[in-house]
Amino acid sequence: MANTESELMLRMHGIKKSFGENEVLKGIDLTVARGEVLAIIGPSGSGKSTLLRCINRLEEIDGGSIEIEGEFLAVTDEEGHAAYAGAKKCRELLSRMGMVFQQFNLFPHMTVLENLLEAPIHVKGLAREEVLPVARELLNKVGLTGKEKAYPSELSGGQQQRVAIARALAMKPDIMLFDEPTSALDPELTGEVLKTMKELAAERMTMVVVTHEMAFAREAASHVIFMEGGHIVEQGAPESFFSNPKEGRTRAFLQNML
Amino acid sequence: MDKLLDTVLQMLEGSQITLEIFCITLVLALPLGMLVALGRLSPVRPLSRLLELYIWLMRGTPLMLQLLFVYFALPMVGVRLPDIAAALLAFTLNYAAYFAEIFRAGISAVPKGQYEAAKTLGMSYPLTMRRVIFPQVFRMVLPPVSNETINLVKDTSLVYILAMNDLLRVARTIVQREFDMTPFLIAAVFYLVMTAVLTWGFKKLEAHYGKY
Ligand SMILES: Nc1ncnc2c1ncn2[C@@H]1O[C@H](COP(=O)(O)OP(=O)(O)O)[C@@H](O)[C@H]1O
Ligand SMILES: [Mg+2]
Questions:
Q1: Domains in chain B, ordered, with CATH?
Q2: Relative to the alpha carbon of A48, which ligand is closest?
Q3: Could you tell me the pTM of the whole model?
Q4: Nearby residues for ligand 2 (ion, Cβ within 5 Å)
Q5: How far apart are the C-alpha atoms of A192 and A162, rounded to whole Å?
Q6: Do residues A113 and A149 touch, judged by C-beta distance below 8 A?
């Protein structure tokens, strides 16, 4: 299927980002079409998290532009200053994205169900009765029916991360961002989270996933980006990317991951 | 027996001043402490530094000195407050500083990820504070706030030097008049009852909010 304009969910162009003197992103271009899963891989410190966090403005870019479904979240003017859309527009665009963190970041003082209901009720202003079936449906989807009343601390890491995915989905985002969602998990628990993510991908959810799980990237991604030192070193469809990497650095990295 | 009853009744009256200072100080110092904590944590440097100075002064000098200052020094520069107001001013300013440090530690202890998660869910800053941060801070600060509150019960006896008829002063007056130590014992019981009730109350709160 061709990537027609209307299908473009995310476009980032010339993204630059520094922390003080440390230039972390040195001009990143990428696009994600509806239903695509973009996997971002690369060594630690290469700027993957920063790039992901720039998408939903957890970090602000210094240069470049970000387009969400054809609307500008941030643009850079002639003088090279990045400017964000107005507060209202930003809120609206950012509300189309959900994020899942390495450390889950569930609200520990709320039960599983309350974690899911929180934003739909208090941000969207929906009625509890209206959100409840949606929340239950989502818990069922991530395989956690029966855990409604549990507190996050009573769950395993894998269960917590699945709650976090459900919590993000409860806001009905168009794009889901994942920052190493399985890196904080014991190896035997990564499978259940990856399975949930694969199911999401199969439902054509648009996803950007920073990951160290090469098998997942290979199987679930529609496009893979390899980053190093704030640059995109190589990218492509997973089959060719993994079986026939062109760059020496990509090969060295993939070798290391095995 | 009648005499004992009479003594207890007089002391009950004294305990009213004690309770009044305790309650009003708590009601004023807790929210003030929260505001000071937020100010301390704000990115507005001058505000943060000013509040740091305030906290340093309040925690670095004896409460007794602060009481004397408000009571005796302020009138010299023309600020004349009623006795009870003077005492409450000193107590509130002092305790707000301690509470501020407790709250600041509590707020700082909430992981950054909580703010980020709230933000990615579209929650505004006030909503994040109200629904996500404060409930967690509340639970964390309960034990230290409980300690300070129990200290406050005992610190109220400092108004003794301001010639206010609090529990301790009433006890001493009777002791001096009657050459009988019983009022001191009764005073001890009064303080113990107050701290016991508080300890119990905070335990209940901790149990209630400690379920996660
Ligand atoms: N908030 C921050 N302040 C300063 N430096 C940061 C911050 N976040 C990330 N960095 C730096 O940016 C670089 C890239 O980090 P990151 O994007 O987390 O890499 P990755 O996710 O690929 O491991 C690192 O050198 C890191 O130290
Ligand atoms: Mg990272």
A1: 2-210 (1.10.3720.10)
A2: 1
A3: 0.89
A4: A 49
A5: 8
A6: yes
